[in-house]
């Protein structure tokens, strides 16, 4: 019989169902150390095992089919458990974590923290015999090969699910499919303007195969020739990592409530859908297996016998615990506020209330749109590569255009494990990667000869955008102008924002590159994007429509709400997925949406073409792809229709086409994966085989130092956005105007980007650390009235509204399956609520909603919400850190929660926490406008360079509060328990690294201002005694700044 081992639990090794009562247990973290528990009395002929849950208040016996163990977490728990065991027919043996010594103590009562193993027999007569024999049970050590002192329970062991319920999901079943909801009929839509001859519907792609020898852990392996394989690999690996996460949301033995018997509509409660754990939308599919319950026990019927080795399941018998049918139900309603779904489920049995196992799925449309975009772009790139190779092989003229995509990409191909065969002259090249992509039922043939297509640089716009080169840029011949000719819709725009708008409108950076707008927190990215849209939409020289996208619905709605003041419903469309509910859309935007048959849909072609601006999410732009209204599709229909009507007019095929989608602008572009951004890119990309009168505009605004898209695989580059990948390209990263480098001399290319550096959100003290860490000390604080909270007593007399509050409380684990982690810290939560109450009691802040509390762990968020409700703090914003990206709050309290270093490695693997997560750190710190409090254990946080920099900033400027609580017993002996002993010098001594302190310009200026109030230095006072000129004032300021920096470094 195979030996199954689960780390951190006592696990049976060789259980024989008809043998004498005995069980061998292994503690897997100690290798071959075994504990044998034997009963000398006669046993019955069969044995079954039962479990009691860890919560004594809700103990429920469940047949398992194997031994189990539970953790005694407190003396009170132990007492209650023992009392309940006495009233049951359970035989208990105490299994203590033991040492390597052969002298094993007798099984006395366990201390707190020990594990308790218990078993039960099915025959009542045997229960009494085992009770009498309990004192005779003696543990005996068999072998020991390593020291057991370091053994600890594994808190990451998945939550227990009874075998009788879990086995039902694995049993064979007949599939009953509930009809899906009616979405957009794209076949019908296409036929309304293209018939069936010129365009056909987009079909689903076959599932790609994983290319084993193509690594995807570094963007160095990505080239045009392997583009599809690279991102197919990323997608496949991410889906593989996502499956266990989705499976962890499965529910077992949950009741359904009948809503409509005739239409077979049921209500199902789903905890967590409010925070998209799991993510469920209208039209999604969910799997149901209806249980057949035993009326006496309330458990699935007949599972004990069926699970017995050698009996039911092992002999191929049908599972008796459910109806034998798996129902693919369809979601027809989503109520996130009440965490409930409406399901249409065909095939449930009545009259009893259906109790089901519920399984969640990765939805096919979620994946199809990404695969389609990857395939579309790869096909365009392969056409460019093929024409380039053909051109290189056939041309001999030195004056012909040269392409710069050769040696370095061939080197990447070689490094990636692909062969790239070259001829002796270097002209004839071919790759081993096939580019045969046929994702549509009909491929339109190019009416142009290859030579014409390959000589037009316009036809390779998509390639140039994704893989730019300096030759695509425009030379800068004059100095930038400070005078702009536009009439601004928003008159409060600053110089950098106006520069970005003017650059995109004039395209002074060239027509073959994307334009990037780097926007750190609070610098007005969205404001700039909206002005850009309005200037283009009202420019008579701009021909065509604008596709405006963002990664999420809230971000997209924000764009629509800001633009509606200037664009009416006849000029702007808010395009929604049919799966979105009306309640999710802001009321002000509903007039801008198109609704058909009570669902969101796409307008008829004549109406769609009349809109100047279409706003949608990157993923929902796939509706335009499926409707075949992309630039390539529209041009293809136009050309082929003309060629059909006028077959003798060949010149019509050579006429330059006009693009309908003339611009793509993406806000918060750093939050989308590259395949997500490809979806709207495939809408605006011009046809490779036709000449176009102009190229579309691509502009993206974002911040690569804030959160990426949420992905699941930790070892691929799938999380890297197109915005971030391009920002690292030399044409963007090496420009002398980039904040990363100031080297270079004129002449230079016109920079295809703008840095927004003026922050209108936060106090200078809050900006000091992120400005130095992430933005090369380039931020300028433009916010006003940020000193209004300085009267709060919590600042301890310091005029800077930043505080680090040490927390020596221990971190506890609730449910590790929870997305974001099931960790909480009671002392930390209590402190956060205490700070909140203090702010309100002192009337420093009057509105609860002006305070925000965040934590990276969901369990801590739940605990904070409970404490807030108990304190009647109903309006305080409490949530996970990811939920606050793009938002701001007057006062922010950050609960870091983690208190023990030994869990950091697992946090990193699971993507939990905020330590060694620089982007999470940046987002958390920069949400605050006027006040910031950070709660945490400095010993744990100091492992992260970002947190160490922040704590050093707080420590040297006396923005520090020690913990006045008692040491937690579970922290005894740990360095982390002595939070008040921490200092930056102590961390440097422990690590052996003595780096110079990172001091930002904001910090130096604040210190300078503070010292001036105290009289300043002798040099300053000398200049302050008399009147001084502007030049003298600048000199004085420089002297003082130099003195401050020298004193701070020493």
UniProtKB/TrEMBL annotation:
Main location class: cytoplasm
Domain DNA2/NAM7 helicase helicase: 493-565, 657-709
Top-rank taxon: Eukaryota
Record key words, sorted: ATP-binding, Cytoplasm, Helicase, Hydrolase, Nucleotide-binding
Domain DNA2/NAM7 helicase-like C-terminal: 722-937
Localization per record: Cytoplasm
Protein name: RNA helicase
Gene3D superfamilies: P-loop containing nucleotide triphosphate hydrolases (3.40.50.300)
Lineage start: Eukaryota, Fungi, Dikarya, Ascomycota, Pezizomycotina
InterPro entries: DNA2/NAM7-like_C (IPR041679), DNA2/NAM7_AAA_11 (IPR041677), P-loop_NTPase (IPR027417), SF1_C_Upf1 (IPR047187)
């Amino acid at each position: 019989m195979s030996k199954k081992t689960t780390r951190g639990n006592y696990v049976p090794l060789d259980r024989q169902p008809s043998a004498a009562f005995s069980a061998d247990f292994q503690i897997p973290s100690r290798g071959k150390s075994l504990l044998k528990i034997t009963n000398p009395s006669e046993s019955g002929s069969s044995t079954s095992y039962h479990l009691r849950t860890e919560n004594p208040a809700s103990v429920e016996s469940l047949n398992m089919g194997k031994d189990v163990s539970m953790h005694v977490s407190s003396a009170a728990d132990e007492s209650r458990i023992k009392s309940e065991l006495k009233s049951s027919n359970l035989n208990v043996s105490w299994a203590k974590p033991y040492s390597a010594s052969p002298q094993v103590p007798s099984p006395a009562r366990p201390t707190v923290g020990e594990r308790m193993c218990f078993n039960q027999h099915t025959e009542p007569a045997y229960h009494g015999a085992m009770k009498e024999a309990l004192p005779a049970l003696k543990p005996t050590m068999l072998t020991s090969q390593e020291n057991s002192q370091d053994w600890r329970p594994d808190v990451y062991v998945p939550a227990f699910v009874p075998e009788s319920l879990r086995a039902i999901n694995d049993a064979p079943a007949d599939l009953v499919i509930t009809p899906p909801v009616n979405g957009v009929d794209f076949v019908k839509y296409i036929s309304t303007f293209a018939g069936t001859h010129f365009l056909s519907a987009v079909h689903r792609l076959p599932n790609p195969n994983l290319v084993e020898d193509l690594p995807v852990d570094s963007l160095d392996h990505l080239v045009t020739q392997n583009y599809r394989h690279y991102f197919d690999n990323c997608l496949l690996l991410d889906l593989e990592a996502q499956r266990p996460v989705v499976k962890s949301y499965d529910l077992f033995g949950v009741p359904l409530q009948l809503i409509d018997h005739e239409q077979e509509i049921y209500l199902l409660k789903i905890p967590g859908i409010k925070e998209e754990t799991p993510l469920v939308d209208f039209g999604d599919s969910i799997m149901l297996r209806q249980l057949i319950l035993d009326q006496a026990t309330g458990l699935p019927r007949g599972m004990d016998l069926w699970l017995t080795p050698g009996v039911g399941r092992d002999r191929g018998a049908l599972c008796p615990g459910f109806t034998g049918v798996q129902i693919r139900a369809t979601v027809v309603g989503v109520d996130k506020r009440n965490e409930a779904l409406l399901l249409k489920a065909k095939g449930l049995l009545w009259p009893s209330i259906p109790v089901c196992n519920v399984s969640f799925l990765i939805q096919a449309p979620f994946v199809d749109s990404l695969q389609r975009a990857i395939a579309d772009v790869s096909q365009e790139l392969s056409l460019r590569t093929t024409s380039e190779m053909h051109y290189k092989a056939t041309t001999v003229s030195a004056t012909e255009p040269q392409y710069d995509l050769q040696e370095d990409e061939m080197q990447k191909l070689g490094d990636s494990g692909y062969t790239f065969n070259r001829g002796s002259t270097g002209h004839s090249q071919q790759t081993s990667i096939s580019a045969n992509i046929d994702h549509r039922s009909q491929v339109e043939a190019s009416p142009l000869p290859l030579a014409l297509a390959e000589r037009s640089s316009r036809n390779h716009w998509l390639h140039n955008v994704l893989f730019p080169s300096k030759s695509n840029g425009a030379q800068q011949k004059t100095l930038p102008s400070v005078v702009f000719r536009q009439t601004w819709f928003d008159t409060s725009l600053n110089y950098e924002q106006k520069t970005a708008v003017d650059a995109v409108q004039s395209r002074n950076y060239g027509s073959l590159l994307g334009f990037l707008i780097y926007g750190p927190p609070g610098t007005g990215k969205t404001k700039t994007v909206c002005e850009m849209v309005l200037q283009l939409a009202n420019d008579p020289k701009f021909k065509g429509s604008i596709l405006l996208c963002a990664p999420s619905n809230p971000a997209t709605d924000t764009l629509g709400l800001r633009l509606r003041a200037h664009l009416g419903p006849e000029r702007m469309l808010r395009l929604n997925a049919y799966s979105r509910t009306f309640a999710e859309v802001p009321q002000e935007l509903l007039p801008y949406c198109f609704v058909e048959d009570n669902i969101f849909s796409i307008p008829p072609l004549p109406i769609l073409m009349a809109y100047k601006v279409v706003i949608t999410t990157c993923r929902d732009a796939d509706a335009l792809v499926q409707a075949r209204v992309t630039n390539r599709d529209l041009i293809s229909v136009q050309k082929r229709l003309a060629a059909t009507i006028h077959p003798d007019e060949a010149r019509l095929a050579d006429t330059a086409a006009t693009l309908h989608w003339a611009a793509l602008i993406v806000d918060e572009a750093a939050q989308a994966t590259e395949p997500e951004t490809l979806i709207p890119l495939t809408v605006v990309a011009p046809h490779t085989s036709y000449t176009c009168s102009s190229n579309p505009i691509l502009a993206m605004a974002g911040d690569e130092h804030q959160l990426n898209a949420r992905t699941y695989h930790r070892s691929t580059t799938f999380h890297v956005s197109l915005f971030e990948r391009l920002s690292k390209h030399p044409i963007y990263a090496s420009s002398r105007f980039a904040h990363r480098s100031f080297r270079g001399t004129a002449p230079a290319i016109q920079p295809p980007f703008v840095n927004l550096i003026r922050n209108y959100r936060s106090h200078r003290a809050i900006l000091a650390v992120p400005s130095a860490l992430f933005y090369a000390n380039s931020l300028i604080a433009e916010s006003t009235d940020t000193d209004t909270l300085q009267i709060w007593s919590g600042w301890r007399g310091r005029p800077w509204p930043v505080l680090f509050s040490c927390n020596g409380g221990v971190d506890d684990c609730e449910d590790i399956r929870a997305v974001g982690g099931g960790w909480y810290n009671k002392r930390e939560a209590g402190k956060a609520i205490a700070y909140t109450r203090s702010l309100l009691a002192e009337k420093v802040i009057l509105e609860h909603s002006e305070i925000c509390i965040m934590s990276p762990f969901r369990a801590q968020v739940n605990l904070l919400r409970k404490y807030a409700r108990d304190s009647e703090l109903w309006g305080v914003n409490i949530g996970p850190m990811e939920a606050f990206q793009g938002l701001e709050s007057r006062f922010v309290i950050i609960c870091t929660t983690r208190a023990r270093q030994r869990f950091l490695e697992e946090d990193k693997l699971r993507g939990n926490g905020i330590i060694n997560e620089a982007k999470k750190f940046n987002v958390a710190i920069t949400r605050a406008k006027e006040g910031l409090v950070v709660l945490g254990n400095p010993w744990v946080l100091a492992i992260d360079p970002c947190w160490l920099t922040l704590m050093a900033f707080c420590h040297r400027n006396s923005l520090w509060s020690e913990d006045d609580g008692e040491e937690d017993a579970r922290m005894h002996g740990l360095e982390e328990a002595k939070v008040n002993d921490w200092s930056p010098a102590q961390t440097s001594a422990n690590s052996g690294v003595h780096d110079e302190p990172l001091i930002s310009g904001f910090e130096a200026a604040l210190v300078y201002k503070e010292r001036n109030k105290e009289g300043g230095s002798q040099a300053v006072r000398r200049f302050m005694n008399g009147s001084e000129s502007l030049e003298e004032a600048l000199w004085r300021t420089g002297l003082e700044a130099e003195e401050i920096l020298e004193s701070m470094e020493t």
